[in-house]
Amino acid sequence: MGSASGIGKREREVLTAIVETYISTGEPVGSRTIARGNRESLSPASIRNVMSDLADAGFLEQPHASAGRVPTPQAYRFYVKQLTGEARLSPADESLIQGNLQGSNDVQEFMERTSHVLSLISRGVGVTVTSGQGQRNELEHVYFQRQGDRKVLAVVVMRNGLVRDRVLRLTDDLTVADLEIAANYINQNFRGWRTEYDRIMTSVAQLYSQGALATEGAPQSVFVEGASNLVITQQDKERLRQLLATLEERQRIVDLLSAYLDARQEAVRVVVGLEDTVPHLNNFVLIGTPARVGDEVVGSLAVIGPTRLDYEHTITAVSYIARMFDQFWNESS
Hints:
Structural class: alpha+beta
Strand order of the largest sheet: 7-3-10-9-8
CATH topology of the largest domain: Beta-Lactamase
CATH class of the largest domain: Alpha Beta
Radius of gyration: 25 Å
Number of strands: 10
Helix content: 40-55%
Order of helices and strands: HHHEEHHHEEEEHHEHHHEEEH
Shape: elongated
Largest sheet: 5 strands, antiparallel
CATH architecture of the largest domain: 2-Layer Sandwich
């Protein structure tokens, strides 16, 4: 039994039982524990032999000489492949998700709430990113408000629900009437346009030059919630410190999700061991999917947590929220 493909029925059942028991308890799993729930009524001695074979194949490790066995990342990868994808969320979880996400006013608010609800559901870290890109990144309307001498608040609402605002400092002052004329002209003539403008009429030239409609290279919003969950589950203080430092860096989170979530994927992806992108995350897992509106990817949502995670529950929740996101914004557009 040198690989996952070489695992027989008995080994598969024992390995699955060990993984699920360890996820549930967090304690190394012994042969007697597995024997009590084994459907073939295998003796503890027989199960110890199977566990020894699984350890030799790299699926189990023994943290202490007298302790039971714990799954390796290879075991979790095998376990995930065995999941049928037929699990459903409980009515309580569906109610929790809907209660948190319904009533969102725009994409940013929806994604911010999503990071929170994912952390609640998974007991890991909920991470969401809005891409700020795509065909739906079109102007819905713009609003200008005078804030004082040569100071204007610009609020730009996009068709994908994103709302951007910034304070503009102008070389020459504009009156309230000037701003109303400029806003009306833009809303009447440029509604539905992409946010790259070559020029706007002379009366709003100052607003344009000061960046009222600039895209800033397709800005991304990053929302992270649930880092406190890791404090409870992660015993390695140095690894925890490194992970928290990673979560504090917006661009590293964007890079992490970009490395593992492909815009072409249809199903939720599970990546056990993130060391290819962040070396100290070898004992962490990412469960995520692109966030779509129709055929367009407008962001991504994911859970990052220790390998001891309730995979089936988290996968189901991520999939459910992704479908809810698509439905919500298609209905509101």
